Amino acid sequence: MLPYLKPTLARLWRSPGTLQIGTHPRRARAVHGLPEGAAPLIAALDGRHGLSEILRLGRRLGVSRACVHQIIALLAAAGLLDDAHRRPAGLPPDELARLAPEIAAVAVALRTGDGGASVIGRRRGRMVRIYGGGRLGAAIATTLAASGVGHIAVRASGETTHADVGPGAAGWSDVGRPRSDTVRDAVLRAGPRTRVHDDGVPDLAVLASSGYVDPLLGAELVAEGVPHLAVAVREAVGIVGPLVLPGGSSCLGCMHAVRTDRDPAWPKLHEQLLDGSEDGSAAALVAATAAQAATQALGQLDGFASAAVGGTLEVVWPDWRWERRSWPRHPACGCARRRPRVRGGPPRLEPSAPPADP
């Protein structure tokens, strides 16, 4: 074992015997009753010294073997200690350097004890297919690439327009190029070693739109057993969800059926909306929606429950407060009769209850 304290957490000595690690209430912990001379011992928890070396250092400092073991056990139990032996392996030096901030954040947020190795390893083995190549789809794709997702395919129609230019998306020189090529190039700028060929069955599909997603596409993905996340920015509202788990949650067809129950004219309206032109989307709203979408997508890939399952997360400009709206399964939708299909990956963690509708 090569123990080290999570490097992104500040180390603050409140007194000679009390060490505070971290500052935010969600992350910070205080260790009390440390023996005199513990500071060099704490500094040695840097991933370069094995347990035997740390024990020898403790002996020179007058700290008993039992006390050293107790300190290490206490820090490990608090989720503050990782093992350098379990750091991500097999990454080229440049890729490891690129992903270092992501790895450090994962280690702090998820407290896996392996320095984020297991999560980053899973992401690198996952494939996400993005449907839609405008500013929204491109921003989601590049964020996922920057987060370590190893394979990102893009399906986009049409040519890049001036309206597609934006952060993490197209540049001015991309105008006129096929959108799919533009987004692939943006992905490779964010993650040069990301695979971008479109083959195989994705672990997750992201349907990015400035309007309404065609339920027929959702039905195809349900039939293929592909989890998919709908994302849209329309009428100055960012909408993330639902995240559809085929056979395990409500789907886009359920949303369509629920809307039809509430408004019998909805099918006629929806048909007109599918034929409509793209509306304007503020850059800040696109960025906020893309970030939320990428967060929900990463949670699904990492094996965590998502609040977007069975609901949509919505933010209205200029209010900027995210709210959740539930979309239940509809008994008339065929998805309710499908059995959940397990796609290769880690067992899902115990989900927490999603926030209630406002």
From TrEMBL:
Keywords: Nucleotidyltransferase, Transferase. Residues 348-358 have a biased composition (Pro residues). InterPro entries: Ubiquitin-activating_enz. One of its GO terms (molecular function) is nucleotidyltransferase activity. SUPFAM superfamilies: Activating enzymes of the ubiquitin-like proteins. Gene3D superfamilies: NAD(P)-binding Rossmann-like Domain (3.40.50.720). Residues 336-358 are annotated as: Disordered. This is Molybdopterin/thiamine biosynthesis adenylyltransferase.
